[in-house]
Amino acid sequence: MSTPSPSTGADLRPHWLICATMLFSVLVYNLVCHLWADELQMGIVEAQRVLIRSILYGVAIVLFPLVKLLRHILLRLNQTMPGPKTARQRYLMTIIITQVLIEWLALFGLAMFILGDGFNTLYIFSVMAVLGIFLHKPNRDEYLTIEAALADENL
Q1: Domain that holds residue 75
Q2: If you count Cβ atoms within 10 Å of the first and of the last residue's Cβ in the chain, which end, N or C, has fewer?
Q3: Is residue 5 one of the residues assigned to a domain?
């Protein structure tokens, strides 16, 4: 009977780097908007911005549970799908997919700022993105569950 190799903290290092990259990009968006606010803003008519902002808020509200559902599905697929990929590779793909989807929230704030909205909208979408990054950060227990499922499959 083979036992899975003991997991170290280094197993999830690339996963955490993905999250750090996403947080850094949100910071960069905000800094760019603060440093070059006048050059970036287009000044679209208020009525059009309100419509676009409302649609993007609606998409953001739907995106949170959708990403949670997708993460749940991906975690189950990581445990059950056959293939040569390791638990680390499978879980990394799950983290990348969820983090990229959450990053869209920060891009919504950047887009609204460029269209002419103020810093308030930028901050709201940025905080929502940071919250999403936090909610979908790597979880050691999830990783160990995938690793154990793959080890059981290989017995």
Answers
A1: 11-153
A2: N
A3: no
